[in-house]
Amino acid sequence: MKREAFKMYLKPGFEEEYEKRHAAIWPELKKMLQENGVSDYSIYWDKDTNILFACQKTEGGSSQDQGDNPIVQKWWDYMADIMDTNPDNSPVSIPLKEVFHMD
Fold first, then answer.
1. Which domains does the chain have, with CATH numbers?
2. Are 56 and 39 in contact (CB under 8 A)?
3. Annotated active-site residue in 2, 3, 20, 22
4. 22 is catalytic
5. pLDDT in tens, 33-72
6. N or C, fewer C-beta in 10 Å, the chain?
7. Which residues contact 52 (CB under 8 A, 6 or more apart)?
8. Side-chain half-sphere CA neighbours of 92 within 13 A
């Protein structure tokens, strides 16, 4: 099991909408992520910078590595209006290096 973290960018004024959409995450997306080894997935919001900090445990690949899946592509399209995205609508996602961990 590997721990991974990354940051993304939320467009200003969309904090409530981001939370609303994730509170109703699609069951097929959640199932697909779990089946591909993603677990213990959390996203935090820094209100001063609008940076979203995500951390997850993975076996196989990060949630950010699932872009060839049609469910993920549909989710990216759904979220593109409220996040900074790449040309394919994937979120701009910057991996973060782990510098400390305590069990």
1. 2-96 (3.30.70.100)
2. yes
3. 22
4. yes
5. 999 999 999 999 999 999 999 999 999 777 877 888 999 9
6. C
7. 7, 8, 9, 10, 18, 43, 44, 45, 46, 83
8. 12
